[in-house]
Specification:
Elements (H helix, E strand, L loop, with lengths): L3 H6 L7 E2 L2 E2 L1 E2 L10 H13 L10 H21 L7 E4 L2 H16 L5 E5 L8 H10 L2 E5 L9 H6 L5 E7 L11 H10 L3 E5 L3 H4 L4 H4 L3 E5 L10 E5 L1 H6 L10 E4 L4 E3 L13 H17 L1 H20 L4 E4 L8 E6 L5 H10 L2 E2 L1 E3 L4 H7 L4 E5 L6 H18 L1
Helix pairs in contact: 2-11, 3-11, 4-5, 12-15, 13-15
The structure holds pyridoxal-5'-phosphate.
């Protein structure tokens, strides 16, 4: 039995008030709150177990290294990679996709080669490809979503041409919640020799992920959305693709030997991790993943699905609210606009007065906003600790906003 009240007690911030009202935190899509075990792990690491990793021969360095390196296996198990050596640590999905652009795509692509993106990609999965367009003449091909916000995998597959080198696609839209059939896309792409990068920044928080089942080449994770510290993250890179990558950031740790004339690189994955990493952040992420696993990934997904269904039913009763993206293949994230002129920023300000935290704006998804012909939406996104009572508070606050602006 999913005990949401017990889970809520594990997150100290949830008991605070905002503007004199109990906090209703529905901005998990931007960043999730942290359970006490993660906060304690950060404190313990700095209080008792801190030193730089990998390069020391002293007790604390070895201890910190063991704790830090143990996270590689935890992330590998979390996404079911064939080996923990397929996990590269980083600061999050933005860094991950930039790494793939520089380390894998740039050396392998030339002017006229094509990258396929969907219109609902986050800027983190757009701007690095614009770099290749601007600097190398690579062509970005866009695939639209339909009027329900669904992405037909066949539309992505049909966009493949002999010039296509990469499909870079989200697993779950951070605006609409749409879940993309990345497995079908990957199978078809591979049959045509095209690599697939999946932006799992949102999906990995809301559903169990199996990279071997998906078959993709790259899968990105964001630690701070996975209830872990900010500045933590990782990318799964299939071993055969890892062999194709050139080092991206150069410096300490990613080398075995440096002379005046030559460099011998470390083995992967460390070849792609230069400099002092986010040691404590990654240790905290490991604890966050343990925490999620102990609650149960399927159980979290089921709880969030029931919250989403409850919210969708309630919102359907408000005929002045337009939910953007009505496809049933949807995670625990949804965007909406309000009839009349109320701007998303104004709505979110009213909600905030009631203690309800949502996000308003473009959500780093300029092309999607252009496609939907909107300048902004409000977005509510659930985490494992949200409740139906909180959905009711959201609805009450929306009614207030409608009274004021509608
Ligand atoms: N991709 C998606 C779908 C996101 O929602 C986000 C963050 O909002 C990112 C990428 C960027 O992730 P990070 O904060 O790890 O750089």
């Amino acid at each position: 039995m999913y005990d949401v009240s017990a889970i809520r007690k594990d997150f100290p911030i949830l008991s605070r008030e905002v503007n004199g009202k109990p906090l209703v935190y529905l901005d998990n899509g931007a960043s999730a709150q942290k359970p006490q075990v993660v906060i304690d792990a950060i404190s313990t690491a700095y209080s008792h177990e801190y030193a730089n990793v990998h390069r020391g021969l002293h007790y604390l360095s070895n201890l910190a290294t063991d704790k830090y390196e143990a996270v590689r296996g935890k992330i590998g198990r979390f996404v079911n990679s064939a080996s923990e050596d397929e996990i590269i640590f980083n600061s999050g999905t933005t860094e991950a996709i930039n790494m793939v652009a520089y380390a894998w795509a740039m050396p392998r692509m030339q002017a006229g080669d094509e990258i396929i993106l969907s219109v609902m990609e986050h800027h983190a999965n757009i701007v690095p490809w614009h770099f290749l367009r601007e600097r190398m003449g690579v062509v970005i091909k866009w695939v639209d979503v339909d009027d329900k916000g669904a992405l037909d995998p066949q539309a992505v597959i049909d966009a493949i041409t002999p010039k296509t080198k990469l499909i870079a696609i989200t697993h779950m839209s951070n605006v609409l919640g749409t879940v993309v059939d990345v497995k079908t896309i990957t199978a078809a792409a591979h049959a045509k020799g095209v690599a697939v990068l999946v932006d799992g920044s949102q999906a990995s928080v809301h559903m169990p992920v199996d990279v071997q089942d998906i078959g993709c080449d790259f899968y990105c994770l964001t630690g701070h959305k996975l209830y872990g510290p900010s500045g933590s993250g990782a990318i799964y890179v299939k071993a055969s693709r890892m062999d194709e990558m050139q080092p991206f950031i150069g410096g300490g740790d990613m080398i075995r030997e440096v002379t005046k004339d030559a460099v011998i690189y470390n083995d992967a994955p460390m070849k792609f991790e230069a400099g002092t990493p986010g040691i404590v952040q990654m240790i905290g992420l490991g604890v966050a993943l343990d925490y999620m696993t102990s609650v149960g990934l399927d159980q979290i997904a089921a709880h969030e699905a029931s919250l989403r269904d409850y919210a969708m039913t309630k919102l359907a009763g408000l005929n002045w609210i337009q939910v953007q993206g009505t496809t049933p293949d949807k995670g625990a994230i949804f965007s909406f606009t309000m009839e009349g002129a109320a701007h998303a920023h104004d709505i979110s300000t009213i909600l905030d007065k009631k203690g309800v935290a949502v996000r308003a704006g473009q959500h780093c998804c300029g092309p999607l906003m252009e496609h939907m012909n909107l300048n902004a939406t409000c977005r509510a996104s659930f985490g494992m600790y949200n409740t139906t009572d909180e959905v009711d508070t959201l609805i009450d606050a929306l009614e207030l906003a409608h009274d004021l602006f509608g």
